[in-house]
Write a structure and sequence with these properties.
Number of strands: 35
Helix content: 25-40%
Radius of gyration: 24 Å
Number of helices: 22
Length: 648
């Protein structure tokens, strides 16, 4: 698309926090930064000056003034702000005020519950004291098995204030799946709930909570939101006694939380991030890129299992009100998220390409059916969003509201690229690389490429890169995950194209690359074309190298009304037209459903391995998948495919 879908006005540029930051840098360092591109170049060339400027611009509180920003500019092993002590929670509670809510809980039935700043801080202080009285202290792990409710945020703040380490997963996980993650950490405390509401029904989790509690043998205390059983303490009792919330100062790289990889192909990896790195990265991302501040209402539909929960909590670092929603985003109607946004005056709404596509197919009209006058921006992540969905959002919400697609990962608990209030938005593209992110695209030889598909790499360290993986004493798993292809360079595992105008196209995972006759292609280009058809609910494409040297590229489609010859022809035509003739699959196969990770990502890599002959038991963990029946269908299909191959 040659014409921008959204272009900032002069007032957008002048009022943006990133513009204020640029003026701050210009005055401090006597440089001229006329636009975002110039600011980004300065931020990656002058890495230490940039991150110190972020520190000072946001007046980050620490026990003593930092003297060194980056001691070793290497990857892995960069040492940020050595000798500096701070606490994430201090950066939150400084924004306490009496005239606005800290957290709003939006329930499926349309009711809301407001938590004031005073209530949030008081409950966090009381819970921290309960944990401390049970012997929980610095470095101990506190884990949550909770829905996305205010108590989850409060439990995290209480944990971090003590210098203990937080980790959580949502209650859509079974007890065994939760134990696969949280059990690795040998936690001292468990914060849980008796259940949650989804799709109009209460999901009783008492049995799973009991099983999880029994499996976590190192627990000293269990706190339950709702009806407590056994030796658990009720949330009301754990937060009854008023105690001051007094965050302890910890080193910059002291662990803040542990987030987990999807775990679809083995035991989930625990990724450890530090207090200081998260504070810096999230202030940059949430305030400078998302333009959030004390007057904003920030709502990203997410789960405690997904890093976007951590990203949403970062709204508190800027004084924003954050919205927690634990129900079905399409219940009772497909436009439920837009209804929440309208009722609560949301200024920044975050969702996924899948939700937008569902709204399109449901013929939703959010801009006319709801008062979205407060909405200033829409965020999109989880997978690459088709250009057609960006255009639909512009047409149905309003061309004055920018749609900022972002791409990053649990690995850095932030984004590498996305939007900013001072740069145009083009449909299907990410407008800019994020500040401080030395983003590039490399070919197989490690040379930069422009206008062509390459590996997403980061050539300079970021403060929020992992401190380490959990139970990875020698760092070998961490190095193998990101630094084995290009030594000293972070390879993220995505295919991207960097355009001449500085925007970024994301094509999908490089480890699930489609490679026909030596031509590399991204699966996202096929999904964009196929899923635009009304008859197609969802699609999955695999590129499978066979033992005899052949290459098979099947396309699986979910077609509620059946796959006819006429529809096959239209699928092939739309792929040929919107992607290229090379993208047309070898075979189109109707599937009952497409399985995903519990954070919504299609299982391209493990399913490819199944069709190549790998055993299901060693390739997939069904507890980490959202639809066991859909997975079983693919397992059976792959087994049948292998039987046919052996008989050839």
């Amino acid at each position: 698309m040659t014409t921008a879908l959204w272009t900032p006005t002069d007032s957008d540029v002048a009022g943006a926090r990133v513009s204020q930051f640029a003026r701050f840098v210009e005055q401090r360092h006597e440089v001229v930064l006329p636009d975002y591109a110039a600011l980004w170049r300065w931020s990656t060339n002058e890495l230490q000056l940039f991150w110190r400027a972020v520190w000072d611009f946001f007046d980050i509180r620490s026990a003593a003034e930092p003297s060194v920003v980056l001691e070793q500019r290497i990857m892995p092993g960069a040492q940020w702000f050595p000798g500096t002590e701070l606490n994430y929670v201090d950066q939150v509670i400084r924004h306490a005020r009496s005239d606005r809510a800290a957290i709003v809980h939006a329930r499926e039935d349309g009711s809301t519950r407001t938590v004031t700043w005073e209530e949030m801080i008081e409950q966090a202080g009381a819970l921290a004291s309960t944990l401390a009285d049970a012997g929980v202290g610095r470095g101990d792990r506190v884990v949550g098995y909770l829905p996305n409710i205010p108590e989850t945020v409060i439990a995290f703040l209480a944990t971090a204030s003590l210098g203990a380490v937080w980790s959580a997963c949502g209650q859509d996980y079974s007890a065994s799946a939760a134990l696969d993650r949280l059990g690795q950490l040998e936690p001292s405390a468990l914060i849980t709930a008796d259940g949650y509401v989804y799709g109009g029904k209460f999901r009783d989790k008492a049995a799973d909570v009991a099983a999880l509690t029994a499996g976590l043998e190192t627990l000293r205390v269990v706190v339950t939101v709702g009806e407590a059983s056994g030796n658990a303490v009720s949330w009301a009792a754990a937060t009854a006694e008023r105690r001051e919330l007094a965050p302890v100062a910890v080193p910059f790289d002291h662990p803040l939380w542990i987030v987990f990889s999807s775990g679809t192909t083995g035991l989930p990896k625990g990724i450890v991030h530090g207090h200081g790195g998260v504070v810096l990265e999230h202030l940059k991302s949430v305030a400078l890129h998302s333009d959030l501040g004390p007057e904003d209402v920030f709502f990203w539909y997410t789960s405690p299992s997904w890093m976007m929960w951590n990203f949403q909590v970062a709204g508190l670092l800027t004084g924003s009100t954050i919205v927690c929603a634990d129900g079905n985003p399409a219940f009772p109607t497909p436009d439920a998220l837009w209804d929440i946004a309208a009722r609560l005056g949301v200024t920044y709404l975050g969702t996924s390409p899948g939700y937008v596509l569902a709204c399109i197919k449901a013929d939703a009209h959010p801009g006319t059916d709801h008062d979205l006058s407060a909405l200033q921006a829409i965020g999109i992540t989880g997978s690459a969003m088709p250009a057609s969905s960006s255009i639909w959002l512009s047409d149905n919400i309003g061309a004055h509201v920018p749609v900022f697609s972002i791409s990053g990962g649990t690995d850095v608990v932030s984004a590498f690229a996305g939007g900013v209030r001072t740069s145009p938005v083009w449909a299907g593209e990410l407008s800019v690389p994020f500040l401080g992110v030395a983003l590039d695209a490399f070919d197989e030889a490690g040379d930069p490429v422009r206008g062509a598909v390459g590996e997403l790499v980061v050539t300079e360290p970021m403060p929020s890169m992992p401190l380490h993986f959990w139970n990875d004493a020698d760092g070998s798993r961490y190095r193998d995950a990101y630094f084995d292809t290009y030594p000293g360079i972070w390879r993220h595992g995505d295919w991207i194209t960097l355009t001449d105008r500085g925007s970024v196209l994301v094509h999908g995972r490089s480890d699930s690359t489609l490679n026909r006759n030596g031509i590399r292609m991204g699966s996202a280009d096929i999904y964009q074309a196929v899923e635009s058809l009304d008859e197609i609910t969802e699609a999955l494409v695999l590129g499978i190298e066979l033992a005899d040297g052949r290459y098979w590229m099947p396309l699986f489609v979910v077609v509620p009304d059946g796959l006819t010859d006429e529809l096959r022809e239209r699928i092939e035509s739309v792929i040929r037209t919107q992607a290229s003739p090379r993208h047309v699959p070898d075979e189109i196969i109707a599937a009952p459903a497409i399985p995903h990770t519990r954070t919504g990502k299609k299982l391209e890599v493990p399913l490819k391995r199944l069709f190549q002959g790998a055993a299901a038991a060693g390739t997939l963990d069904s507890s980490a998948v959202d639809d066991a029946a859909a997975l079983a269908w693919f397992v059976d299909r792959a087994a049948e495919f292998q039987r046919v191959q052996r008989a050839r």
